[in-house]
């Protein structure tokens, strides 16, 4: 079973948390933004679709008034149940791509004057 730990401080992230917020997890200890590695999401989606296909095949043989509806319903349910479960089991965490942090404006920096006019007005 994959271990979901923060790559920075090794804090363990709970599986439901990782599955529910796979795009935007924040480490509860150090605040690092994390995300579930894309491989795990691909696997969980594929597994969900496979489960849906199996459920659809199993239920499509049934004849009856609901015969046309149930396969779709079962496939939908199977996907909705299996996919997050697999994601919980396989998820690995990695660092989320860094947001373009608003850097403090280079006041007193060695190359303070940038290329674009900051709008403050030269005189
Ligand atoms: Zn952390």
Structure description:
The protein contains three helices and three strands. The protein has helices at 15-20, 38-60, 70-90; strands at residues 25-26, 33-36, 93-95. Helix 2 runs antiparallel to helix 3. The mean pLDDT is 79. Zinc ion binds at residues 6, 8-9, 11, 27, 29-30, 32.
Entry summary:
The chain is mainly α. It has helices at 15-20, 38-60, 70-90, and strands spanning 25-26, 33-36, 93-95.
- Succession of helices and strands: HEEHHE
Number of helices: 3
For the secondary structure, the number of strands is: 3
**Share of helical residues:** 40-55%
Largest sheet: 3 strands, antiparallel
Calculate the mean pLDDT score and round it.
79
Small-molecule components bound: zinc ion
Which regions are unreliable across 5 or more consecutive residues at pLDDT < 50? none
Radius of gyration, CA atoms, in whole angstroms: 24 Å
Distance between the termini: 64 Å
The amount of beta strand, in percent, is 5-15%
Trace the largest sheet across and list its strands. 1-2-3
Shape: elongated
Instruction: Kindly name the structural category.
Output: mainly alpha
